[in-house]
Amino acid sequence: MPRANVFGSFVQALFFSGTVGVPKYFLNHYSELEISHIEALLIIQIMGEIESNPYPSSQLLAQRMNLEVTRVEEMIAHLMARNYLSLEQQWDSAAGKSTMSYSFVGLIDELSERWAIEQVKRYEAEQSLQKGRLGQQESLSSPNTIGQIIKTFEQELGRPLTSIECEVIETWIASKFSEELILAAFKRGVMAGIRNFRYIDSILREWEKKGLRTLHEVEADDAYFQAKHDKSRGKKTPQQQPARKVSPGKYEDFYLS
Length: 257
Known about the structure:
By secondary structure, the protein is mainly alpha-helical. It contains ten helices and two strands. The protein has a two-stranded antiparallel ribbon with strand order 1-2. Helix 4 crosses helix 5, helix 6 packs antiparallel against helix 7 and helix 6 runs parallel beside helix 8. It is elongated, with a radius of gyration of 37 Å. The termini are far apart.
């Protein structure tokens, strides 16, 4: 037979001889369970036989592993003592009798418990890391955000802000109003000719009451308000006639002098 044919026949026989599915998690963690390398190999040998021969003899396992039968029996006893391996009695309806089989239920329980603990620790570590990053981000970004807002206000007002006005801005930041919303509210006050902090605060509080947290949501609410306003006055819809984003007097009821 040509050499190539011999090799091809071997490869075919190799793959069709069957495979053994060994969980990678077991391979990565068996030493942590104080299972020796030779005991891990014994478990793999039993796994390889369990489908066709659920209760392989110690003699067969010893032959496969090139060990003394007494050594194999000692390892089996050790695994059973630690509940990693057990014997179960099953009824074979075809043969009409009870048969014995090895079971890895205890080993699976131990591995699953360790996996669950790992997942909890990983989750807690991720949460802790995320909180640390958020805290660091807030400690670094908040002063910059407040400083930028104060700078914008001072440039528009043409004067330095008082300490009370700065405290009001800090209160807005603490209330989770974003920089874009604060500046948008300020811009609306300027456009309305009202540069009063109470008026700006009333705009922000109205948005908060409506659950508006982004500029996009505010603009969508403005469009809805304008469409409703135009409809009540018998005007064309926003699709037919472009509408101003902010209707005059929308915030007049919220103004506090």
